[in-house]
Amino acid sequence: MRETLLEFFKKTGRPHRLEEILRRFGLEKREAKAYLKALVREGLLEKKGSQYFLPARVQGPISLHRDGYGFVRLPEKDLFIPPGYTQDAWPEDLVEARIMPPGRDGKPWGVVERILKRARERVVGTLDFRKGYAVLLPDEPGLPELRLIPEGLHGLKRGSRIVVKVHYDQRPYGEFLEYLGEGDAPETETQAVIAKYGLRAEFPEEVLREAEAIPLEIPEAELARRQDFRHLRVFTIDGVDAKDFDDAIHVERLPKGYRIGVHIADVSHYVKEGRALDQEAFLRGTSVYLPGRVLPMLPERLSNGVCSLRPHEDRLVLSVLVELDEDLKVKRVRFAEGVIRSVARMTYTEVEAFAEGFGLPEEHAFLAEDLNLLLDLTQRLRQKRLEAGSLDFSFPEVKVEVEDGTLHLIPQEEPRARSLIEELMLLANRLVAEHLVNKGLPGLFRVHEEPLEEAYGKLRTALARLGYTLPEKLSSKALQRVLLEAKGRPEEPVVANLVLRSLRLARYAAENLGHFGLAMEHYLHFTSPIRRYPDLVVHRVLKAILRRSLTPAKKVRWQETFPAIAEHASEMERKAEAAERELTKYYMAKWAELHLGERFVGKVTGVASFGAFVTLKNGVEGLVRLEALGPYTYSEEALALLGPKGKRIRLGDEMEVVIASANPRLRQVDLVPYVEEASARSKSKTQKGQGKEVDMRKVVGPPKDKARDTRPERATVNTVYFGEWAPREEKAGMHRPVDTRAKRRRRRR
């Protein structure tokens, strides 16, 4: 209805009173006012007196093209800003633009009038000297060169990587903050990414002191106060390299059904609201998993210590106890503060092997019956969820491991084991959300709104070109049907990516707006308080209910502060994702440097007027430029590159390619199509190519002949996207905006 109302205002182009809306659409007065109020709050409508009307000005982040024009990104349709009308905005700055009457093409355009918020306070780049001045050449494409004040630069050489604070004066200038190193060494790039996104690498002394003061032993009085689950077969399932175990599970057979226990580390017992630990956790928002390095939300004494559900040690938990009937309908839910003693620390690898018919290690054999039952229950729960319309994206996952500065890409193939844990966590998250909503209590919800009409329309058009149909009326079931139809076909990853890119980003909100992707009316994050701040906040609300300590004053305070917490948590999550993605792209370009001239088979995952993007089996993506392909032209209608004699390059096609070049600093990999002549020319560079595809096992997985006693940190990515490709004629080092394709984001549920 919100979209219908907005379209009505656009068609009429004039103000309307509430009474007109009521007559036109037959709405209840309270309902209509709620819709209109929401549109006003989002800046899509304005209200003056008793009239509602479309705003003459809009606000949104701006994207800029190297030719001087830009677009203000809006919830409905982006507003074009011609060259000369962008003021002094930088990419991603939040701006206010005045909408101008349509030009000869009949399309509206805008003029940037104010810059409301700068997107960046600091910039990372390379130090240079020009005509007696120090300047910064930003790493980020699209940013201008920045003149620097001399303070702090003494002794630094040309080519040093530094961080500067930006002062937005009439002519912006930079102030030196930090020296990162020389060149593009992995350590330097890691520090550069941390600085670029404003991530917090070190804990303040005050926070560490508070953490160290936490006793390792649980007082007897606290144990006596809680429900004792230590007699149950509670266990954890995590990755081989996991160090923080924040969820444990157990299952029991009942006369007419089952009882499932999801036990989550009681972080809120140790991290008190308003204390130094809590303030630092809020600022971080989330743990950040970079290749080769982890920036935890909480100090190690908590994340890997008293809050980690280690086997054979007493741990405090907040538990969700669910009773299901034979048809897996929820009969009863109970929440409890408890204490557990995990009987085993299992890995996804062990559970996956068990699911495939292999036995368990001897020390875990006693859990075989429980695992069999859980594998069956969770597969049935998953099937019910999919039947309800929950979207299932089966992207291949790759573990990114950095060892001694070298990257290894390890395919992750534990679908049933991971699905077991995912279904139980989804169940617990949903039930906690329903409980808060039914009680009318404040919460931090994980919301995912349905796609905008324009995005859905583009998706329908794109899928139709690939032979898939969607109904005019949007539904998650229809999207799920298309994903199932594409399963196992060459274009499956392309269809999944098109659907994913049409969806809005999931985010945190203080109001319950439902989760479109999961087809759930109520949903939040509860199961990872060690690494996500919103989960910790939800724990506090639930415990206040259990202890009957939620006073009216506290309820009002939470209702007032939760919107800001939700916005900050969403922002930090986006920064963490961007940092993980960018550093992974750097390491993948470094990997490509080591395999120049080698031949691989990949799939076409994108086509554009300047070439085709090809993704290798290990997740590395590169660009085959148009000039390397020959006389091909881009057809938007066909979503393909059309060549001579009916040849075409389409999304999902396989292509044999050779790695031609790589630029880790720019996160770029260039590929060329494989031909016999190319193989002969590449012999001088490598002896591995010789007309045969390189065995992918040699380029993924742990290095040979190397002991695996100590394992490095790992980050897991669903898909790694490369973008921001400069035309070949542009010289490296020219810092001007470049043409970019739409960015694809991994979405976290």
What attributes characterize this protein structure?
alpha+beta; five-stranded mixed barrel; 35 strands; single chain; RNA-binding; 18 helices; 749 residues; Arc Repressor Mutant, subunit A; 30% helix
Could you explain the architecture of this structure?
The chain has 749 residues and is α+β, with helices and mostly antiparallel strands. Among the domains are: 54 residues, Orthogonal Bundle (Arc Repressor Mutant, subunit A); 62 residues, OB fold (Dihydrolipoamide Acetyltransferase, E2P) (Beta Barrel), CATH 2.40.50.640; 323 residues, no CATH class; 78 residues, OB fold (Dihydrolipoamide Acetyltransferase, E2P), CATH 2.40.50. Helix content is 30%, strand content 27%. The protein is built from 18 helices and 35 strands. The strands form ten sheets. It has a five-stranded antiparallel sheet with strand order 6-5-4-7-8, with no helix packed on it. Strands 9-10-11-13-12 form a five-stranded mixed β-barrel. Helix 10 packs across helix 11. The C terminus is likely disordered. It catalyses: Exonucleolytic cleavage in the 3'- to 5'-direction to yield nucleoside 5'-phosphates. Keywords: Cytoplasm, Exonuclease, Hydrolase, Nuclease, RNA-binding. Its main location: cytoplasm.
